[in-house]
Amino acid sequence: MKRELFPLAATLFILMAGVSMVTPILPTYAKTLGATGLWIGLIFSGLPIVRSLFSPIFGRWADRVGRIKPFVSVGISIYGIASILLAESRKVYHLFVSRLFQGFGSSLVNPQVMAYIAKIAPPGEESRYFGFINMIFFLGLGIGPFFGGALSDLMGIKAAFYLMGILSFSALLIFILVVKEKNVENIKKRREKKKLVPFKIIIRDLRILGIIFFRFALAITRAAVLTFFPLLAAFHGISRSGIGLILTYQMLLLSFGQYPGGKVADRYGKFNSLVVGGLIANLAFILFPVAKNMLWYLLLNTFMSIGGALSMPAAMGIISEIGRDYGPATTMSLLDVAFSVGFAIGPIFSGEIYDILNIASVFYITGIIGFLGLGMLYICFKRY
């Protein structure tokens, strides 16, 4: 593993721990400002919507310039400023605008970080590198909510937002001082080269199209888990502490499974790992409504996490290979858009199913979407 990966991992861990710290308290904070259910939904959906709009623009720009460090630095700075704006919000729409601003920062960070990994990963080891960085990413997301909730209980809700800002600026300092961007071409040399491949040609690549379908469907199912799994588990008599334990267990297993899952993908084939992992995860997901007790939920979450550990680094490894032809930041931004759009509309779509039918139908119908996404992936790759 190359040494330059570790400072980036430290930056990402600190940043994600800070960002996820406010997740459990944001709905409560919004309610204190008079937010309705619709406003709360908009506050949560605003970030991925803005990210999906701007990620391709900044990804394209980064490939044209030949650098990612300035983009990520500005994006992390925006995270820090947004945390202060969130803490100082006086109206619901202040919160909403602050989250949109945070989404703008996210569009500068996520695709560029993935493009950096794609550039430094040796050929044939892409999934292993992405598995490692995914592990760090999910660990940061996993520990943040616990500390955010505890801090808000001890010192008030705003303390968590300010700590998010401190962590964001700490991550920025590490990134600027320690992370090195090697083999950087200047803008003049980039312009002398052949122009970047147009987007309309890139999305005609069936491999990219297949992974976009897969990532979109994955986001729909993940959104359903985060939004409606607590309701489903409570319906079957699982306590709040039990639900928290299940979700923490799933996140930790998914996190620690990323690196070995990436090694498996590199060794036995990225596409094979992607399909097998997707099948395992979707089968476990669609069986959630038939589980009746804690043991069954832990078992299904185990299989779902194993499937995610196999498929996620494999998908990023494939996109990394494809990105050598089209530009790493550009192709990573398309992956980011697919997931962001799915994650933005997933809760709304699932909510409509819940209102019209029932809680079990949420998992059956979104599970079918997961299988359709996997089927489209398979068809696209076989036709390529």
Explain briefly what this protein structure is:
The protein is mainly α and 384 residues long. Helices cover 85% and strands 0% of the residues. α1 (5-21) runs parallel beside α6 and α3 (37-65) packs parallel to α5 (92-120).
Helix content: over 70%
* Percent strand: under 5%
Count of discrete structural domains: 1
Q: How many strands in all?
A: 0
Query: What distance separates the N and C termini?
Result: 32 Å
Q: State the fourth-level CATH superfamily.
A: MFS general substrate transporter like domains
Largest sheet, described in full? none
Order of helices and strands: HHHHHHHHHHHHHHH
CATH secondary-structure class: Mainly Alpha
Number of helices in the DSSP assignment: 15
Radius of gyration: 20 Å
Overall mean pLDDT stands at 85
Apparent shape: globular
Runs in which pLDDT lies below 50 for 5 or more consecutive residues are 184-194
What is the level-2 CATH architecture name? Up-down Bundle
Q: What structural class do helix, strand and pairing data support?
A: mainly alpha
CATH topology call: Growth Hormone, Chain: A
Question: How is the topology of this model organized?
Answer:
Blueprint: H1 5-21, H2 26-32, H3 37-65, H4 69-87, H5 92-120, H6 126-155, H7 157-178, H8 187-192, H9 199-202, H10 206-235, H11 240-268, H12 270-286, H13 294-326, H14 328-356, H15 359-383
Helix pairs in contact: 1-6, 1-7, 3-5, 3-14, 4-5, 4-7, 5-13, 5-14, 6-7, 6-11, 6-13, 10-13, 10-14, 10-15, 11-12, 11-13, 12-13, 12-15, 13-14, 14-15
